[in-house]
Design brief:
Blueprint: E1 5-7, H1 12-19, E2 27-30, H2 36-41, E3 49-52, E4 62-65, E5 68-72, H3 77-82, H4 84-89, H5 91-97, H6 103-108, H7 111-117, H8 124-131, E6 134-139, E7 142-147, E8 152-154, E9 157-158, E10 165-171, E11 179-185, E12 196-204, E13 210-218, E14 225-226, H9 228-234, H10 241-254, H11 265-285
Parallel strand pairs: 1-3, 2-3
Antiparallel strand pairs: 4-5, 5-10, 6-7, 6-10, 8-9, 11-12, 12-13, 13-14
The chain binds flavin-adenine dinucleotide.
């Protein structure tokens, strides 16, 4: 295999021009390389040009925005984990970032690369979907902003065109007024992808009545799944007992896992129910 040329644009415009083919060869984005590197080593991808994003300043940074957050695509997961702004506004996101793989992976992997890699078992998509995050996709032809749940198409597939970059992720301000919990079930090793990962974000009134809910599950379908039937089962009553069990049953009915080394489809469906109950109980205990 011919070694790809590694180019490092310094502006977003330059990066987009290279992606659109202005550099001559077909360029593929390289962020942290923790997802793409193994594919290249196995010969599953052979781009002529690798487009390193590390010098594009516009793509970095964690900033407070409208009560929520604006997260640049090249923010490393370790920086998300340690950011005081993230911890203050959406602690569940900092917590989830700190659970991805191991410190070597988190020190290299970027938020944009993590989402664009689109493995359905990844840790951050469920949390970000539960938070109501949106992604910003930019090409020379324009910009589009999508709810994160509409970004994923299937395993390792997204709506991104080859000329587009994911530039930033927005976490809305209203998510800071909800309580959000993420739990991952990784029985083989804490460094492994989870068998299932469940995130729930709720707004409860002082009596514990659920006013609003967002439920998302990873590892149990071709993409992260937002489970609106479970959300409907939660809203309008106290977060406790039968209501928790009913919502968890809705999750079990809605997920669509398959057999693999992390468990059978049947086992994953059951684990999605069990871990949803645990997450909901934790939220109820926090009232
Ligand atoms: C040992 C190991 C353990 C792991 N454990 C876990 C785990 O427990 N949980 C978990 O969730 N994940 C885990 N991962 C996966 C890891 O989270 C992903 O590999 C990583 O997040 C990808 O980020 P990256 O910046 O390295 O992306 P890259 O590998 O650089 O890129 C991934 C893909 O996205 C594209 N891309 C990157 N950035 C952009 C952008 N801004 N716009 C458009 N396209 C872009 C690239 O072209 C490539 O196709 C593990 C990985 C390893 C190697």
């Amino acid at each position: 295999m011919k070694t790809p040329e590694y180019v490092t644009p310094t502006t977003l415009r330059e990066a987009l021009e290279l992606l659109s083919g202005a550099g001559g060869g077909e360029a593929v984005v390289w962020a942290g390389g923790t997802g793409l590197g193994p594919l290249l080593r196995r010969g599953l991808a052979s781009p002529a040009v690798l487009l390193g994003l590390e010098k594009v300043g516009e793509l970095g940074g964690v900033q407070p925005a409208d009560g929520g957050l604006r997260l640049g695509a090249t923010v490393r997961l370790r920086d998300l984990q340690r950011s005081p702004v993230v911890a203050a506004r959406v602690p569940a996101l900092a917590d989830a970032a700190g659970r991805v793989g191991n410190v070597r992976v988190r020190s290299l992997a970027t938020l944009g690369g993590h989402l664009c890699h689109a493995d359905p078992a990844q840790d951050l998509p469920p949390v970000l979907v539960a938070l109501g995050a949106r992604v910003c996709l930019v090409s020379l032809r324009g910009t589009r902003v999508l709810p994160l749940e509409e970004f994923f198409v299937g395993p390792l597939q997204t709506v991104l065109s080859p000329e587009e970059l994911l530039t930033e992720v927005w976490v809305p301000g209203e998510s800071a007024s909800r309580n959000t919990v993420y739990a991952r079930f990784a029985p083989r090793s804490p460094e492994d992808y989870p068998t299932v990962g469940v995130a729930v974000s709720v707004r409860l009134d002082p009596d514990g009545v659920c006013q609003e809910a967002r439920v998302a599950v990873g590892g149990a379908g071709p993409t992260v799944l937002r489970i609106t039937a479970a959300e409907q089962a939660l809203v309008g009553g106290v977060l406790a007992g039968q209501r928790i069990r009913d919502a968890a049953r809705e999750v079990e009915a809605a997920v669509d896992p398959w057999d693999d080394s992390r468990g059978s489809a049947e086992y994953k469906r059951a684990m999605a129910r069990v871990w949803t109950e645990r997450v909901l109980q934790k939220l109820a205990d926090e009232v």
